[in-house]
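Class, carefully examine what follows:
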Amino acid sequence: MPRPAEVDYTATSLRPTWDTLPAALHEALTVALGTDITEVGQSVGSGFTGGFAAPAHLADGRRVFIKASDETLHSYDAYQREAEVVPHLPKAANAPAIITTAHAEDDLAWFAVVSEWVEGRMPGSPWTPADFDVVTATCEGMAAAMEPSPLDGLGSFAGLVGDDVGVPAQILAGERPFPSRLQEWVPKVLPELAELAQLAPEALQGDTAAHSDLRADNILIGPDSTCWIVDWNWLTLAPRWVDWAGLLPIAQHDGIDTFDAVRRSPLTADVPDDHLDAFMALIAAYMMKNTDAPPPPGCTPALREHQRFYAWTYLDWLAVRRNWG
C-alpha cells in the first residue's frame, strides 16, 4: 500500500532570528526579566507559524525559552493566551512555568512570553514503545488532574472544530474539492465518514480541560523521562480522552499497537467505539480541508503537508476499525 509523504516536524517553521526583533522588545524583555539576555540560541524549527521561539541564557545564570510575535501573526494572540492559561494549570499538566511577559511598540505591537527552559526531545519520527508509554502515562495523569477544569469560561472542543463536521458531506456534494494524494479508497468511504463526523458534536461533550492540539511537536521528553507539554493556547472542555486519542493514528503508523492500547487505557476502555471513531473522522475532515490551497498568511507550506499526513494516518486508523480499504 502506498504511504503518505512523511513530515519532518523539526523543520516545519520559518522563524525570525533574535537580531531581527526590534530593540524596543529586547529592552522590554531585559526590564521584565530583571537581568541582561547574554546569549540567544537558534530558533526552533517546529511549528507552522512565524513567531520567534528560541532558548536564551541570562546574565544571572538562568536559562529560559523566549517566544515573541508581532500583531500581524496568529502567534501574537496565541502567545498571550498561553501566558494567561499556564499559571492556572495543575502540576500534572507538566507545562513549563511562565517566568514573565513583555509588550513593546515599534512600527507594530509586539508581545513576548518567557518560560522556564526544559531539556527534552520531541517523541515520534518514529514513535517508540518507550516514548508512547511515557506520553500515555502523562496524558492519563493530566486528564485526571484537569477535571474539573482549572479555568472558568472555556469553550468546548466540539465548538472549536464544529465548522468541520460538514466537510466530508461538502466534498460528496461537490461543494469542496476532493483532496489530492490520499488513499484511492477514500471516495468509497466518504458517506460513512460524513455520518461519523456528524456524530462528533455529541461524542465530544465533556468537562475535562484539554490541551486540544497535542501533537508530538508539542511534547518534550527529558533525559529523566519527564514528559513536558507545551503550547497551551487552545485549551477547551472535552472528554478526558481527547488529547491522548489524537496521538494514536501517528503512533499506529509508526508501528505501535494503539488498538490494544485503546482497550487497556482507563481513558478509552469504556468509550463507545462510535464516539472514538467520530472524533477521528472529525479530525480527518479538518485535515482534508484546504490541503491543496496555499497556506494562510504567516504559516509555512509545511502546514499543508502536515494536514495531508494527518488526514492519511487518521483515515488509515479508521480503516482498520471500520473495515475499510
